[in-house]
Amino acid sequence: MSPSRHAVFGHPVAHSLSPRIHAAFAAQTGIALQYEAIEVAPEAFTASLASFAAAGGSGANVTLPLKEAAFALCADTSARARRAGAVNTLIRENGGWRGDNTDGAGLLRDLGDRQGLDLRERRTLLLGAGGAARGVAPALLDAGIGELFVINRDSARADALVDAQEQPGRVHSRYYTDLTALGEFDLIVNATSAARNGGLQKLPMSLVGARTACVDLSYGEASIPFLAWARAASAHDAVDGLGMLVEQAAESFALWHGVRPETDGVYAELRGRNAALVTAD
Prior knowledge:
Blueprint: E1 4-10, H1 18-29, E2 33-39, H2 45-54, E3 57-62, H3 67-72, E4 76-77, H4 79-84, E5 89-93, E6 96-100, H5 103-114, E7 124-127, H6 131-142, E8 148-151, H7 155-165, E9 171-174, E10 185-190, E11 208-216, H8 224-232, E12 237-239, H9 242-257, H10 264-273
Helix pairs in contact: 1-9, 5-6, 5-9
């Protein structure tokens, strides 16, 4: 039987560990799978995805900055994708794409099961309002965090993310200039891609308290600036996005193939291989 064809689309995407992760899942479950990374600029994404489908593509992951564009291209979407307004997983069905979002589920599984963090009632700061932030905000709220404050360079996008949650007494939009007045947070999640371009906003250390967990949704080199700040501020926990990446990939794999792979071994192998970049996360 010929392998099913899958891919991850992004810009940039050459750094992605997704092909390695899905190859490990395929070997573990005995499923024939072809999985590649496809670099595509936002303006070419629609045509590239159509070409992928025409060549037999049956499923795809989508990473930044294409998650919101992917949502718009779907004929059908899951409830969690609609809440996010962003898609990171595409399933080919009836000649069209069904979109889902496994980011939130992946983050919660990593933080709860692997990192042992209890998120309930944590006063939370979310940095960023793009596709990654949209994917995790509803899941964090469902997990029982306390108030959620969203900060983004483009305040209109932060306002839109906040409005989409429909919890005005619990979810708030603020500006970067407000940070010094906001006090301590129990959970700080960096969902921006600024560090990839050397543009991570300067953050006051007063945001971090004795029990603060700082989480970067990125991994590898892109996570280093934020996690270095977190450790300098004496955060209780500093966690990168490698575990989330593995867990959201397992959720995607289950959507495509009907079986959820074991993740701890894959995570441990990747953590070992990438230790030089993501030590002590």
